[in-house]
Each structure stands twice: as structure tokens, then as C-alpha cells.
Amino acid sequence: MKNEIKIALVTGGSRGLGKNMALELAKKGLHLILTYNNNEEKAKEVIKEIERLGQQAIAVQLNVTEFNNFEEFFATVKKSIKSKFGVEKIDYLINNAGIGINVPFAKTTEEQLDTIYNIQFKGTYLLTQRALNILNDGGGIVNVSTGLTRFALNGFSVYASMKSAIETLTKYQAKELGDRKIRSNVIAPGAIETDFGGGAVRDNEKMNNFIASNTVLGRVGLPDDIGSVVAFLCTDDAKWINAQRIEVSGGQMI
């Protein structure tokens, strides 16, 4: 019996956490669609790594703030997967694309507020809406939040507020898409060593040490700590997990 093709779309899949998510999904036997904003070469490198794992992948350019282009984006995705995989729909959507910002509440500008809103919430909201036409019944959505919705660290008022909205949105998606058997869950990583936010956690030794000392497992997170959890949520092993916030932080700030 031929194995059923399963496809996951990972936004921001060319680097950082998104790259690790894509690789872990490939290890679970899924084919991938990666989006990248402006670095096509990085996306192609990830595709090569996925192919070495025995799976196939497609990279498609996407700016999550160019809302009017979402319909064209999904038309491209549909055409690409039909050509490469012989199917017209995907099974999982992982809303990973985003940026970080660290600025005190009193100094946050309207422009910074709008930027984070558009990328972290509005983009995710509208992209997922458009994805419903190409998402198989019985599939799943994985949104990405942050541990900062549970605990507070200076300078993250805008970022964490938008991620709190994503957590609420996840529940509503699960509630309203239940008749299609589409599950929606949200993961909440703790501080991770990547180039996210200018590499602050990775490159700032003082911040790194502070976070490690306030995490019960004694270190900051790594991309490898996150991708496998996302991959798990995109398998039948997680078929009864729905509307959940899963924190992946090693026990940070407990």
C-alpha cells in the first residue's frame, strides 16, 4: 500500500526555528513547503537538507505583511504541489514567520506597534483564513507564541501582547474549525539561541546567563528543542490534542 502524502507549510522556514521545524517534520515523513521573505538561497539550502532526509520540499516567497498577495501566494502553492506531489491541498500550516522587538513600554512608537501587529497577528490571522481553502479536513494548524505571555521581562510589551492574541485566536480556530476536524494548537517557546531579535539571546552573554539561571534545566533553549514538538503536533500521535498552549521553555521562570 502506497504511503499517503502529507504536506506541511512552514512560514519563515528558511532559518532559525522555522528551519528546524521543517527538518523535524521531514524526519516524520512529511513533505514541505517553506516560505522565505528575501533570502531564497537560505531556503534552497534547507531544501537540500530535507532532500537528504528523503523528503521533498518547495520554497515560495512570502511577505506576511503583504496581505493583498495572499491569494496569489496560495495559487502558486496549489500549482506547485499539484506539479510536484500530484495533490492540490496541504495538511498542516505552521505559522512561524515573525520578528522580535525589545523596547520599553514608555518608548514604544506607534510605528513599532503597527509593525508587530501586522507581522505577528494580522498577517497570521489573514494568512490562515486564506489557507482554509487549501487545507485538508482532518489537518492541523500550529501557531507560535512565546513564554513571555506567561511571565514578563522588560521591553517585550508589544511582542508579548500580540502573542497573547495569537493564543486566544488558536482557541477560536479550534472551536470553529472542529466540524472539519482541523486541530489548532499553539506552542510557546522560551528564550532560544537564534538570530531572532538580532541574536540577543545567543550573543548577549549577560542575557544568556540570566535566562539560564532562571530556567530549571539550567540553559537557554536551542532550535532543536522546538522543532520536534511542532513535528509531533503534525502527526496522528497528537490527534487528540486540540486548542492547547504547549510551553517549550525548559521550565523558564517558574
TrEMBL record:
Listed EC numbers: 1.1.1.100
Keywords: NADP, Oxidoreductase
SUPFAM superfamilies, per database record: NAD(P)-binding Rossmann-fold domains
A single GO molecular function term of this UniProt record: 3-oxoacyl-[acyl-carrier-protein] reductase (NADPH) activity
Superkingdom of source: Bacteria
InterPro entries per record: NAD(P)-bd_dom_sf, SDR_fam
Gene Ontology BP, a term: fatty acid elongation
Top class in the EC scheme: oxidoreductase
Pfam families to which the protein is assigned, alphabetical: adh_short_C2
Family named by the database record: Belongs to the short-chain dehydrogenases/reductases (SDR) family.
Name this polypeptide is given: 3-oxoacyl-[acyl-carrier-protein] reductase FabG
Species per Swiss-Prot/TrEMBL record: Arenibacter algicola
